[in-house]
Amino acid sequence: MLRENSKVDNGVHNKHVPFFIRLKKIVDPKWIMILLPLAFILITTFIPMINLFKLSVVDENGFTLKYLTQVFTQQIYLQVIFLTLKIAFLVTLSCLVLAYPVSYFIVKLKSPKLKKVILQLIMIPFWISLLVRTFSWIVVLQDQGVINSMLKYMGIIDKPAPLLFNTAGVLIGMTHVLLPYMILNVYSTMEGIDRNLVQVAQVMGAKPTRAFWEIFFPLSIPGILSGSMLVFILALGYFITPSLLGGAHDMTISMLIQNNISNTLNWSLASALSLILFLITLVLLGGLLFLMRNHPALKED
Amino acid sequence: MKKIITGILSLGLLLNLTGCSSSSKTATNAPKELVVVDWGGNYTDVSKKSRYEPFEKKYNVTIKIVSPTDYGKFKAMEQSGNIEWDVVNVDADFAIRGAKENLFEKLDYNIIKTDGVDKKFISDYGIGSETFAVAISYNTKTFNASNHPKTWSDVWDTKKFPGARSFQKYAEGTLEAALLADGVAPDKLFPLDVDRAFASLDKIKPSVKSWWTAGAQAPQLLATGEVSTAAAWSGRVLAAKKQGSPENVEYNQALIYADSWVIPKGAPNKDLAMKFINYCTTAQTQAEFSKLVDYAPTNSKALPLLSEEIKTRLGQSTNSAKQIVADIQWWADNFNSVDARFQKWLLK
């Protein structure tokens, strides 16, 4: 409709265009390109999701708020949701801290060949099964593991540092898995930044650090945001890594959901937990977007 | 070069197509197919040799193996009404819990002969396939054959037997160990005194380095000396020992659980599934199975068919240490509430 109106504004005589040509414009093939994937996503994501969430308020006896009340009245569930958010936040932060310099380094590289090689290296973890990687971390991080024996040999520590079966182990394992997502996001945004702007700033007398912080960094924020969101959301759903590398306290909401789906078979409770996790995620991300809505880097030009 | 590759690829595709047609042709005349679900890994390998292949020959059917057993999938299948499985190997307590959710067909005990099978392992909807033990396991570098934790009280005594501990991240097995450690007599164990069990667990919690969830974890923790003592599935630890890991099992006070065969409600080949369960329950089949793996038979008539050496390995010889069979019915009745409390306790 908007397109039609703009045509009128531009002075094109719309009235005399035959109907089927106008129809053809509306069913432009490029819309089909979007519609098909969109329908696919809607059908495969939202229909099962609605069916799942329905279970949280409906059980064999009909409508009930029992399960949602259970989540809010029994301390354990809110506690675990908080732990999950905490772990996801820390993982996002450590991914960002590690990914930013790496991406900057790759962008600065002059040789395109070397760039390709490094990007390939970053992709390697994707090729290895998650379970294998997690078990390898146990070998590396345990008391007699590679890191602790090395530190002991160098005389930095006398007692093995506790790296496994605690939050540190979970953070190391999850950061390793999720780091490529952050690097690829931040890198692709940085690659699109017009480096002439930084040069211009320097020509105008800004020191390199100032040019970086005032020109380059703000322009890279969209990449930081998209990478952080992706990593944060993926991290919220993890349960294999925290259950293998974490201690008793590193319980995530997905572990409870999984336990209720396939162990106690209490699907309604599992559904209530996923619904609340979903809503919390929406609120957090919505809030973030709301706060950032006036950021110039996010505005269209 | 490109042409050659395309040539090879298209040839491969063609061969594939002919392969499809010929296999589908045989499928129509082929013997019936029975879909059996089990736990995967080594369990599937030994089941293939001792149960599936002999059954296929005897009844002229083919068995399709699906693994691992997944209760969530089981329930989903029953709810959708599209049942693909014929026989499923489940934890014995699930054979009772799942019956409450109306997931199973009643077993036909006219077809399935139960003589020799302990009544504890038989219910309307499931029958024990084999038993396994949650046993005291230890690192043999820290302890030796004469000096190691021999009772659950020893496991709780971190002064006498130093080192970190590892327990299963499930209430089942862990609560029993806690009560035995606190001095409850084995014959008075069930019904479990849940409050007392958690009070006892409070004492050992600071020494528990890892709560394991996958069967492979405990043997690995013991092998590297990360923990000195663990409550672990005996079969897994003994398999690691066979491969040279410095670890061993103490069968005294081992807690015995069973796996059970069940038939999903509405299974496509129900009658054949009954015959299959009967075949797996016979003393002969169970003996063959236990020869290959460290799981003991549920049919006591299988024991005379085994050598003394194998019986010792299974903890089933006459001079084997005293073991305790868990009350599956109690667990089935209390599983959900105790499990919820256990999760809460872990976070405390």
Averaged pLDDT of chain A: 86
Structural class of the secondary elements of chain B? alpha/beta
Task: Tell me the number of strands of chain B.
Answer: 9
* Secondary structure tally: strands of chain A: 2
**Assembly of the depicted chains:** heterodimer
Biggest sheet record of chain B: 9 strands, mixed
Secondary-structure element series of chain A: HHHEEHHHHHHHHHHH
CATH architecture of chain A: Orthogonal Bundle
What's the main sheet of chain A like?
Answer: 2 strands, antiparallel
Helical content band of chain A: over 70%
Give unreliable regions of chain A as ranges: 1-12
Number of helices of chain B: 13
Radius of gyration of chain A (CA) equals: 25 Å
Distance between the termini of chain B: 66 Å
Strand content of chain B: 15-25%
Counting structural domains of chain B, the number is 2
Q: Could you say what the CATH architecture of the largest domain in chain B is? A: 3-Layer(aba) Sandwich
Give a written overview of the molecule.
Chain A has about 300 residues and is mostly helical. Chain A has a single domain (about 70-300), classed as MetI-like fold, CATH 1.10.3720.10. Chain A has 14 helices and 2 strands; from the N terminus they run αααββααααααααααα. Chain A has a two-stranded antiparallel sheet. The longest helix of chain A has about 35 residues, at about 75-110. Chain A is flat and about 65 Å long. By secondary structure, chain B is α/β, with parallel strands linked by helices. Chain B has 2 domains: about 30-130 and about 260-315, Periplasmic binding protein-like II (D-Maltodextrin-Binding Protein, domain 2, 3-Layer(aba) Sandwich), CATH 3.40.190.10; about 130-255 and about 320-345, Periplasmic binding protein-like II (D-Maltodextrin-Binding Protein, domain 2). In chain B, strands 1, 2, 3, 4, 5, 6, 7, 8 and 9 form a 9-stranded mixed sheet that branches. The longest helix of chain B has 28 residues, at about 1-30. The termini of chain B are far apart. Classes of the chains: A mainly alpha (about 300), B alpha/beta (about 350). At the A-B interface, α5, α7 and α13 of A face α3, β6 and α13 of B.
